[in-house]
Design brief:
The complex is a heterotrimer. The longest helix of chain A is centred in the N-terminal third of the chain and has 28 residues. In chain A, helix 4 runs antiparallel to helix 6. Chain A is an all-alpha fold. By secondary structure, chain B is mainly α. The chains are: A mainly alpha, B mainly alpha, C mainly alpha.
């Protein structure tokens, strides 16, 4: 087991190290002369603190459409998870598995059609 | 070695789960939950179930978590100021939690059961392939639950649209 | 690959799935223009499913690698489910017209809810049990919150959902432990593991696991202490949905509970020593709490909610006193089934009465029922019939149910339990009579007659006729219950 996943662990370790090393090096080597505009988040000239108080609250309420999009995403994400073993085992399963998958997808297409018909794929 | 990895990910999962409950900011809780999901995926890998691990990362750490974050943002997140009116429930909740913990301890104490094993042992899985096995079972023995899942997803979507669609 | 025989055996489910999808497709294609007709499509689908289930009567098979049982026990509930569905469709047509823009979707969800009920009745596998319970729960949450403009409906749905999510998580944990013990999802194999293993740790673990499962099922049946959601959900939900919730999920919740306990528990001989006292306590708590709290209610939907909690307590007596060994007519199991069948028509009928009044006037508070007999004599008279039946007074269906349930308790020596059951029935007469008193003996403020919609009248007459018919001519029901009992083994 370890021999198979050791590579993945190593890979993950390197992937973390890879961005960490340059950042750490920059932190060690760079000169530190902060001023106000350097400390701002985007250094773009528009300072966050200059905004009116009301606009500074970035925790705004999202629209419900985001939620519906996320849900549609969940539905089709689950579908993909089912498609994967189907594709892998396809040769061993034969025609009937194809029929099953067509039924499965057909039902989910009905879900998509319903969302479409209710104008949910349009950003209003 | 395997045991060490298990303890590493198990403790990450427990700490993150605690963080999810304790953190006052709902968005931080959600991020903490993401850590739990990924740590659990690692545990599934240890249990020789890489397909479940992949599904866990894809569905839970990916899709479900995004859904959570959107729900939190939909409810215009405020930092939770403490229990308020529900204060008297805390000792009660602690008691119920304790009872449940004792129950779990009983289960854990009898963990080395001479239990039955299913047909899919790690050796057998290594031979035929994990995803192969899932696919072969899902589309033969488990075809009814599989098709029901699609109906469930369909009605979930219809229901959400009925309840949440903007007019 | 399923052959034609398999498809034939699941024909009721297939019919409902196809009709549910068809209604949705009609709603997608033609939208509001066909909303009025969709209720009738749903009725046709439910009637066909009922016919298919009746047609299968006598079948005995295990499908899909043993996970799906088509036996007479399941078919009994597959007959109950579409009947409940048909009555709910009849009473919801007028109710929904003014209250929601999504009438078509309502019938989609309702059709799938009946489908989920059928699947629960047939589930003989831990995965199928969980999946079908969740399916029915989602439908119930959605239907409860269906009136999205109505804050009470929203509140009801949220409370129901939160409670349901937690109990199903607990139940899933129990199911996973059972799978861990036995290495198989099929109930039969779980039972086999139990009986093979003499190990005490298996016994302990099984006790914990089944107790966790009981939490999930107790939620569906609304047994104390898992009942708290019921009054709020019942009060806030659209009234036809309340009627559905009070009979549908409860009936199939009992189906799963019965199949689960009667297949897995005989493998654990010591087990009865733990389960019987637990069920006795739950039964007493459920009856007593439901009835005592119902005494204080002024909203008729809340009153019926607490009353239906109490009814679940009576039915549980039948499970406590179950004894499939002897040839006695009181096996406990048939008591539960007869009780459920009687309760189906009785409680639906009581809710039809509530809807008849609510549709025309919006009244749900009991004091406002004053003088109902002068405004809607038929409804007021039938209220008496249904309440007599709920209280278990002859000559009504409820009496037949209580007779068999209490009879089984007496036969098995649960004298105290039976006595508490009878005492509770007496208490229940007080609050049922409170409604009747308001309707018959108080003077109305407004004497204008209440017009009852024809479809509602039809369902009133049908339910009342069934309530009386079961009492006068119960023999077919006895046979039905006896057969389904024999086939469970």
């Amino acid at each position: 087991m370890l021999d198979r996943y050791g590579v993945i662990a190593l890979f993950a370790f390197v992937a973390i190290l890879f961005p960490a090393i340059p950042l750490a090096m920059a932190w060690v080597v760079r000169p530190k002369k902060p001023n106000r505009s350097k400390r701002t988040t985007y250094e773009c000239g528009l300072e966050f603190e200059d905004f009116p108080q009301a606009a500074q609250n970035v925790w705004v309420q999202f629209r419900v459409q985001y939620y519906i999009y996320a849900l549609i995403f969940v539905v089709f994400d689950v579908e993909v998870v089912f498609l994967y073993p189907w594709a892998v085992a396809y040769n061993a399963l034969g025609l009937f598995a194809l029929v099953e998958m067509v039924i499965f997808l057909g039902i989910l297409v009905a879900a998509l059609a319903y969302a479409w018909r209710n104008d949910l794929l349009k950003w209003v | 070695m395997e045991l060490a990895i298990f303890y590493l990910f198990a403790s990450i999962a427990i700490v993150a789960a605690l963080g999810m409950v304790v953190l006052r900011n709902a968005v931080h809780s959600a991020l903490s939950l993401a850590v739990v999901f990924v740590a659990l995926a690692a545990l599934y890998v240890l249990l020789n179930a890489p397909f479940i691990a992949a599904a866990q990362v894809m569905i839970y750490a990916g899709a479900i978590l995004i859904l959570f974050v959107f729900v939190i943002m939909l409810l215009s997140p405020r930092v939770d100021q403490g229990a308020g009116a529900l204060k008297w429930q805390r000792p009660l909740a602690a008691l119920c939690g304790l009872v449940f913990a004792v129950e779990l301890a009983i289960v854990a104490a009898s963990a080395l059961l001479p239990t039955e094993r299913g047909p899919f042992t790690p050796e057998r899985l290594a031979e035929i392939g994990d995803v192969q096995a899932v696919g072969a079972l899902l589309f033969t023995d488990f075809l009814l639950p599989f098709e029901i899942t699609s109906l469930l997803l369909l009605v979930a979507m219809v229901g959400v649209i009925v309840l949440a669609k903007k007019r | 690959m399923p052959d034609a025989q398999t498809l034939w055996l699941i024909s009721p489910e297939l019919v409902l799935a196809i009709f549910g999808l068809a209604i949705l497709l009609f709603a997608i294609i033609w939208r509001e223009r066909v909303y009025g007709a969709l209720a009738w499509v749903a009725l046709v689908g439910l009637a066909l499913a009922l016919a298919a289930a009746v047609n299968l009567w006598g079948a005995h098979a295990r499908l899909f690698a043993g996970m799906y049982a088509v036996d007479m026990f399941a078919l009994f509930f597959k007959i109950v489910a579409p009947i409940a569905g048909i009555l709910v469709v009849l009473i919801s047509m007028d109710y929904l017209r003014e209250r929601t823009r999504y009438r078509g979707e309502f019938f989609v969800l309702l059709t799938f809810a009946i489908l989920a009920m059928m699947m629960m009745a047939s589930s003989a596998n831990l995965l199928m049990i969980f999946l079908s319970i969740e399916f029915l729960s989602y439908m119930s949450y959605l239907l409860t919150g269906f009136l999205r403009e109505d804050r009470k409906s929203n509140e009801a749905a949220i409370k129901y959902l939160l409670y349901g999510a937690i109990t199903s998580a607990v139940m899933l944990y129990g199911l996973s432990l059972l799978y861990g013990i036995s290495g198989s999802l099929n109930l039969g194999d779980v039972a086999l593991t139990f009986s093979k293993s003499a190990d005490t740790s298996v016994q302990t673990l099984a006790l914990v696991a089944t107790a966790l499962v009981l939490a999930g099922l107790g939620f569906k049946i609304s047994l104390v202490p898992f009942h708290q959601w019921a009054p709020d959900a019942y009060e806030g939900a659209p009234t036809p949905v309340t009627a559905f919730l009070s009979v549908g999920p409860k009936a199939v919740g009992f189906a799963v509970l019965l199949r689960f306990t009667l297949t897995t528990l005989p493998g654990l001989p010591e087990f009865a020593n733990y389960w019987t006292p637990l069920l006795v306590i739950i039964s007493i708590a459920t009856m007593t709490l439901g009835n005592l709290v119902a005494l204080r209610q002024t909203n008729v939907k809340r009153l019926l909610a607490y009353s239906s909690i109490a009814q679940a307590g009576y039915m549980l007596i039948g499970l406590v006193a179950v004894n499939l060994g002897g040839s006695s007519p009181f096996s406990g199991l048939n008591g539960v089934l007869i009780y459920l069948f009687a309760y189906l028509f009785t409680n639906l009928g009581a809710f039809v009465c509530v809807i008849a009044i609510e549709n025309a006037t919006g009244i749900v508070e009991i004091p406002e029922y004053a003088g109902l007999v002068k405004r809607a004599p038929l409804v007021a008279a039938l209220f008496i019939v249904f309440f007599l039946s709920l209280a278990g007074i002859p000559p009504t269906a409820g009496f037949v149910g209580k007779f068999f349930v209490f009879g089984a308790a007496l036969r098995e020596g649960f004298l105290v339990l039976a006595a508490i059951g009878v005492l509770n029935s007496v208490i229940s007469v007080f609050y049922y009579f409170g409604v009747v008193r308001a309707a018959f003996f108080l003077e109305p403020k407004d004497t204008s007659p209440i017009r009852v919609a024809p479809l509602v009248t039809l369902s009133l007459v049908v339910t009342a006729a069934m309530v009386l018919l079961i009492a006068v001519y119960p023999e077919p029901l006895f046979n039905l219950a006896a057969w389904s009992m024999a086939m469970l083994k």
